[in-house]
Amino acid sequence: MNNLDPNILSGFRLLDIIDILLVAIIIYYIYSLIKGTIAVNILIGVGLFYGIYLVVKQMEMRLLTEIFGGFISVGSIALIVVFQQEIRRFLIHIGKNISLRRKKFFWSFLNNKKTSQIDNGEQIKPIIDACRSMSRSRTGALLVFSRYFDEEYYQSSGEYIDAPVSKRLLESIFFKNSPLHDGAAVIVDFRVMTASCVLPLSDSEDLPPQFGLRHRAAIGVTEVSEAVAVIVSEETGEISFAKDGNINMNLSPEELEKILKEEL
Description:
- Belongs to the adenylate cyclase family. DacA/CdaA subfamily.
- By secondary structure, the protein is an alpha+beta fold.
- It has 2 domains: 14-110, no CATH class; 120-263, DNA integrity scanning protein, DisA, N-terminal domain (YojJ-like (1, 3-Layer(aba) Sandwich), CATH 3.40.1700.10.
- It contains 11 helices and 7 strands.
- The chain has helices at 6-10, 14-34, 38-58, 62-73, 75-82, 84-110, 113-136, 151-154, 167-174, 213-224, 253-263, and strands at 141-145, 159-164, 184-188, 191-197, 228-232, 239-243, 246-251.
- Helix 7 packs parallel to helix 9 and helix 7 (113-136) crosses helix 11.
- The mean pLDDT is 79.
């Protein structure tokens, strides 16, 4: 048996190992973002398409090689178009993590944590009271909490309000006979900016079949933005919370209050 040629490993550096590990982490991170979505099937199709191109090129089938080669030559642009939501979600995750660390570092010097929690709790109380009331009456509701107000994104599909959050306002918006009850209410800095907003639906294939439009919209908007969402089910009165495309279901008002204090 031949011994391993030492020249193979002679040019292998520590940076090469780090390079391989970083690429593996990026691939895993991207896969975790697209797992369970239709993007996985698209990626498999792209892989098969490229594999067929390599086969026909190797077999010197000139016509098919030219046809497949024409598509592959613009493949990078096509991938950006097809995977625009996944790319947006990937960049948002990176930016959000950096932003959160920066904010935590900054506020640790300026704010007293206990005082901040007390003030936050007073602002959250009307939201919790409204969710508790709507849960008991089985009034369907979708609340989206965004860190900033994107007028082009939210206002174009909803009614502009810009009013302080209150229990009566939220109950009035989602009252079943209200013209604004369909869609989402977008809250920024504890102000209801718009109501009756149309949100992007999640295309995840792993969602339970009993999920309605509110749950799919809540998951969808948290997949493509930094927003978090609260859902009150019209059928069961169950309260749920969505963040980063994931959802926590069957929450009590007390559990929801604890989550919102941490998130807002």
